[in-house]
């Protein structure tokens, strides 16, 4: 699985009046599917306040930075379904769908954007290593990511968890976003995976 990080989407919030938004963002008759939501946002010359990741043709949020998207989240903090999170997928930009290359071009084209987004599937994994191997390989150490990406699986307690919990199996490509209450800190999350026997992990799977 090959992942490429795209730079240049960080920025500072630019206030918009309702009139500006209505005049600049195209109206879309969109029937939202489960987990999907719309984001109306404006970027400035620096972008949206995101690090984005292209993987298997999907365009994903890799990390949120201070900027328009965190301002959007603050405005919608009372409705978790509208809050953008790392791992969420950008489905369309101003009504245009396509692979990550098409969507990145659309993100660059206009300053006022309507994004159709989809939350990643999220589930918990609670295990006790009890001296056994965890059985996963993770990618860490990239400052543009707030997650640990699972790059490989082998025999171990994570595999046993999946056998005992059908529907919550951990797969290659899943991302660990929290370990024993530690989040947004991949080095400490990785150390917690190594050092602790009992692990409560929150895992997401882009959809």
Secondary structure elements and pairings:
Blueprint: E1 3-9, H1 18-24, E2 36-42, E3 50-55, E4 58-64, H2 68-75, E5 89-93, E6 96-97, H3 100-109, E7 112-118, E8 121-128, E9 136-139, E10 148-153, H4 157-164, E11 175-179, E12 182-183, H5 186-195, E13 198-205
Antiparallel strand pairs: 1-3, 2-7, 3-4, 4-5, 5-6, 5-7, 8-13, 9-10, 10-11, 11-12, 11-13
Overview of the molecule:
The protein has 207 residues and is of the alpha+beta class. A hairpin with an 8-residue loop joins strand 9 and strand 10 (148-153). The strands form 2 sheets. Strands 1, 2, 3, 4, 5, 6 and 7 form a 7-stranded antiparallel beta sheet that branches. Strands 8, 9, 10, 11, 12 and 13 form a 6-stranded antiparallel beta sheet that branches. The protein has 5 helices and 13 strands. The chain has helices at residues 18-24, 68-75, 100-109, 157-164, 186-195; strands at 3-9, 36-42, 50-55, 58-64, 89-93, 96-97, 112-118, 121-128, 136-139, 148-153, 175-179, 182-183, 198-205. It folds into 2 domains: 36-119, Pdz3 Domain (Roll); 122-205, Roll (Pdz3 Domain), CATH 2.30.42.10. The model is unreliable at 1-25 (pLDDT under 50).
Descriptive terms for the model:
single chain; 207 residues; alpha+beta; Pdz3 Domain; 7-stranded antiparallel sheet; 5 helices; 13 strands; elongated; disordered N terminus
What's this entry about, in short?
The protein has two domains: 36-119, PDZ domain (Pdz3 Domain); 122-205, Pdz3 Domain (Roll), CATH 2.30.42.10. The chain has 207 residues and is of the alpha+beta class.
């Amino acid at each position: 699985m090959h992942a490429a990080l795209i730079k240049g989407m960080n920025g500072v919030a630019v206030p918009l009046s309702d009139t500006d938004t209505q005049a600049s963002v195209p109206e879309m008759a969109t029937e939202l599917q489960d987990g999907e939501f719309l984001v109306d946002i404006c970027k400035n010359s620096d972008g949206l306040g995101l690090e984005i990741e292209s993987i298997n043709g999907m365009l994903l949020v890799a990390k949120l930075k201070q900027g328009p998207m965190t301002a959007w989240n603050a405005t919608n903090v009372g409705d978790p379904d509208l809050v953008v999170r790392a791992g969420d997928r950008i489905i369309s930009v101003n009504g245009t769908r396509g692979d990550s290359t098409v969507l990145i071009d659309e993100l660059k084209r206009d300053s006022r954007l309507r994004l159709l987004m989809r939350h990643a599937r999220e589930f918990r994994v609670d295990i006790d290593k009890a001296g056994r191997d965890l059985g996963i390989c993770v990618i860490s150490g990239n400052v543009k990511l707030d997650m640990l990406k699972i790059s490989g699986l082998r025999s171990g307690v994570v595999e046993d968890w999946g056998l005992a919990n059908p529907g919550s199996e951990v797969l290659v490509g899943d991302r660990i976003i929290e370990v024993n209450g530690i989040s947004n800190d991949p080095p400490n999350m990785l150390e917690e995976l190594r050092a602790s026997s009992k692990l409560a992990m929150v895992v997401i799977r882009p959809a």
